[in-house]
């Protein structure tokens, strides 16, 4: 067991760094010492899915299910693989993940759990680090794959805010951070800020920040800075002015509605 502990740490570190090939080798080493190490088996299943080796992942998950028949997480992973097989998907999209991709930058990045998620067939194909696109529809922002498959929507408060920022010329990037058949978590990153919202924070700690912060010229930490916190009132005024000017740089609109899976 003393030998396994450092291997487990290395395997977890490799997965965090999205080095799936290394993660597979380390977990295989663990199984040589402990054939029924359920954590190593599960990590092997996950690492192989991320590496696009779906059939190999299926074998590991079946082995894990034999050890823990009532494990819902394992059952869901096998359901995901079943969906992929039914769609004749042999490999997932290969993503060369930058280890610093999910590095947090206060005010410029935000991790968000999507609402009204799409069909399982779409969610099953998502991989960590996969780039997604944002599409503005009226007062909501949809998240889609680059092939325009519907993934889900940003929550109302964030949708409202980003709609204004995008109309003002801001550009945001989105990446898959976590995903399963029931929910998806995305990482949003400010790529470019529009001129009309230059002094406003894209992702304040509190989206309902009051006017005092705005009028005092203070940022979220209470220190005077170049950026100010925009309030709901300011958002409404800005939205109205942008709508009148038809200044819609940096976003797409689509009239066709797509129903999320119930």
UniProtKB/TrEMBL annotation:
Lineage: Bacteria, Candidatus Roizmaniibacteriota
Entry-linked InterPro entries: TPR-like_helical_dom_sf (IPR011990), TPR_rpt (IPR019734)
Domain of life: Bacteria
TPR repeat spans: 38-71
Statement: the UniProt record of this protein carries the keyword DNA damage: no
Biased composition, class Acidic residues, residue ranges: 222-234
Organism the protein comes from: Candidatus Roizmanbacteria bacterium RIFCSPLOWO2_01_FULL_44_13
Keywords: TPR repeat
Name the UniProt record assigns to this protein: Uncharacterized protein
């Amino acid at each position: 067991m003393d030998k396994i502990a450092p291997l487990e740490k290395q395997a977890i570190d490799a997965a965090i760094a999205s080095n799936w090939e290394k993660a597979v080798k380390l977990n295989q080493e663990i199984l040589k010492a402990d054939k029924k190490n359920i954590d190593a088996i599960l990590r092997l299943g996950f690492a192989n899915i991320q590496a696009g080796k779906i059939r190999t992942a299926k074998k590991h998950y079946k082995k894990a299910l034999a050890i823990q028949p009532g494990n819902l997480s394992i059952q869901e992973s096998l359901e995901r693989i079943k969906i992929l097989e039914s769609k004749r998907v042999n490999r997932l999209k290969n993503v060369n993940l930058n280890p610093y991709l999910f590095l947090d930058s206060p005010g410029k990045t935000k991790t968000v759990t999507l609402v009204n998620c799409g069909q399982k067939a779409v969610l099953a194909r998502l991989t960590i680090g996969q780039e997604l696109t944002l599409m503005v529809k009226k007062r909501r922002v949809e998240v889609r794959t680059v092939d325009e498959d519907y993934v889900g929507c940003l929550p109302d408060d964030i949708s409202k805010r980003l709609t204004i920022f995008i109309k003002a010329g801001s550009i945001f990037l989105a990446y898959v951070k976590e995903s399963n058949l029931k929910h998806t978590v995305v990482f949003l990153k400010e790529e470019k800020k529009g001129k009309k919202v230059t002094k406003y924070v894209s992702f304040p700690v509190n989206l309902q920040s009051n006017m005092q912060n705005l009028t005092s010229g203070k940022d979220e930490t209470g220190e005077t800075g170049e950026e100010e916190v925009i309030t709901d009132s300011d958002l409404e005024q800005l939205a109205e002015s942008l709508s009148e000017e038809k200044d819609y740089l940096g976003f797409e609109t689509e009239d066709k509605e797509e129903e999320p899976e119930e």
